[in-house]
Specification:
The protein is of the alpha/beta class. Helix content is 42%, strand content 15%. It folds into two domains: 147 residues, Aspartate Aminotransferase, domain 1, CATH 3.90.1150; 271 residues, Type I PLP-dependent aspartate aminotransferase-like (Major domain) (Aspartate Aminotransferase, domain 2, 3-Layer(aba) Sandwich), CATH 3.40.640. A hairpin with a 2-residue loop joins strand 14 and strand 15. The longest helix has 24 residues. The site of pyridoxal-5'-phosphate has 16 residues, from helix 6.
Length: 465
């Protein structure tokens, strides 16, 4: 077989991809028809594709490339570690230096008494760990009947059987027999889409109190934990009303229910603090981490666990672990990533300088006739598309039709912006400069203009009745 390289014609690469590669969350035949986009290299916030287009990646890969692409230091860290110790496990009473160093660093960065880390290869695996961990914790505490985990509709916690069950994506639950037993979902704090005429803060309180109602309905003695993203990411960058989290915290405290903050997106500077829990004033018992932990340069995830839980868990053998729990190369890469985030004051810059600048530019997109709302915290933002601003109406067309049209215009304008239904979302590398933010906003506005024109042309600028 001849080598498959960046220099092959795009059409040949596309044909091979269609023949042999099954993509996640993708309709294979539709993709083959359209022709997959081939990304060949990247630097900073810019991707290059096989046709030589330079594309501004406002999604940071998949919410993860926090320090931007092309940092030589991470490549060096990986190469150094591969030469010295490419792999060793952490199962059988052994450890290694990268996993020790990363754990100590994470304990230092994490808030409160979150001081111990259980590693996984991804966010999904880490949330599977969390399911077993909280149930085992309560069994150890003599309350084995406390095995229910409450989550939220339209949450995203991963794609494995366990984490996909924690998630509240109806499309995922429709395939493959999810959810597993004893996972319950309450409604999300999505005021724009579900709040109707209510006051946003009243709505936030009401949605938080659904947790209390669910606990009362099931019996507090049955509930192990509540899991949530501080800000929902894949659900559409849904920023809850300010009233929501304090009420959730109060309810978890009142019933002694463990709180799992899924920080896979919010962690490592995304919201302008090291963790979303700090931005939103949450006191979790466990934080799920992945993505920005290594800026995506190597796969790694984990659960940062409070002293209270660690004390109980360390009093038994937890029959759980992954071959790559604490993989030395991933740990070395993550450490180097954290060093750069810290030494270059990237999180502070998001909080004080580039975040506020992006916020201003992003919110100006709300002036566009197609945009009903522009929300942003730190460097995760969303636009709600609407045919009628004043009423926040949905489109008469199937949900996602307008979002898809807009995303296609973005791509054509060399901007990666995703859509979730009819919400457009961004999560750019945290190192994005003011100049690049200007470019992002200009391309987004132009794409919205073109999307609006296309929707008019197709007769889709109609509100659902
Ligand atoms: C992406 C994501 C996950 C899953 O992480 P993977 O590394 O894709 O398994 C879990 N939780 C949240 C909030 C995520 O955004």
């Amino acid at each position: 077989m001849t080598a498959i390289t960046n220099h092959m014609p795009t059409a040949d690469l596309q044909a091979l991809d269609a023949a042999h590669h099954m993509h996640p969350f993708t309709h294979g035949n539709e993709l083959e028809q359209k022709g997959v986009r081939v990304i060949t290299r990247a630097k900073g916030v810019t991707l290059t594709d096989s046709e030589g287009n330079d594309i501004l990646d406002a999604m940071g890969g998949l919410w993860c490339v926090n320090i931007g692409y092309g940092r030589e230091e991470l490549a060096q860290a990986a190469a150094r570690q591969m030469r010295e110790l490419p792999f060793y496990n952490t199962f059988f009473q052994t450890t290694h230096v990268p996993v020790i160093a990363l754990s100590a660093k994470l304990a230092e960065l994490a808030p409160g008494d979150l001081n111990q880390v259980f590693y996984a290869g991804s966010g999904s695996e880490a949330n599977d760990t969390n399911i077993r961990m909280v149930r085992t914790y309560w069994a150890q505490m003599g309350q084995p009947e406390r095995n229910v985990i409450i989550s939220r509709k339209n949450a995203y916690h991963g794609s494995s059987v366990g984490s996909g069950s924690l998630g509240g994506m109806s499309g995922m639950h429709a395939q493959g027999g999810l959810p597993i037993p004893d996972i319950h979902h309450i409604d999300q704090p999505y005021w724009y889409g579900e709040g109707g005429d209510s006051d946003p803060e009243e709505f936030g309180l009401a949605r938080a109190r659904l947790l209390e109602e669910k606990i009362e309905e099931l019996g507090a003695h049955r509930v192990a934990a509540f899991i949530a993203e501080p800000i929902q990411g894949a659900g559409g960058v849904i920023i809850p009303p300010a009233s929501y989290w304090p009420e959730i915290q109060r309810i978890c405290d009142k019933y002694g229910i463990l709180l799992i903050a899924d920080e896979v997106i919010c962690g490592f500077g995304r919201t302008g603090s090291w963790f979303g829990s700090q931005t939103l004033n949450i006191r979790p018992d466990i934080m799920t981490i992945a993505k920005g932990l290594s800026s995506g340069y190597a796969p790694i995830g984990g659960s940062i666990v409070s002293d209270k839980i660690a004390k109980v868990m360390n009093d038994c053998e937890f029959n759980h672990g992954y071959t790559y729990s604490g993989h030395p190369v991933s740990c070395a890469v993550a450490l180097e990533n954290l060093r750069i985030l810290e030494e270059e004051k990237i999180v502070e810059r998001v909080a004080e300088e580039t975040g506020p600048y992006l916020q201003e530019k992003w919110q100006s997109l709300a002036d566009h006739p197609l945009v009903g709302e522009a929300q942003i915290v730190g460097m995760m933002g969303s636009l709600a598309l609407t045919p009628h601003k004043e009423s926040r109406a949905k489109f008469a067309a199937d949900a996602g039709t307008a979002g898809y049209i807009c995303r296609e215009r973005c791509f054509a304008n060399n901007l990666v912006m995703r859509h979730v239904g009819d919400r457009m979302i961004i999560s750019p590398p945290l190192v994005i400069t003011k100049e690049e933010i200007d470019t992002l906003a200009e391309r987004a506005w132009a794409s919205l203009d073109q999307a609006a024109a296309k929707l008019e042309e197709d007769g889709l600028m109609k509100a659902a009745s």
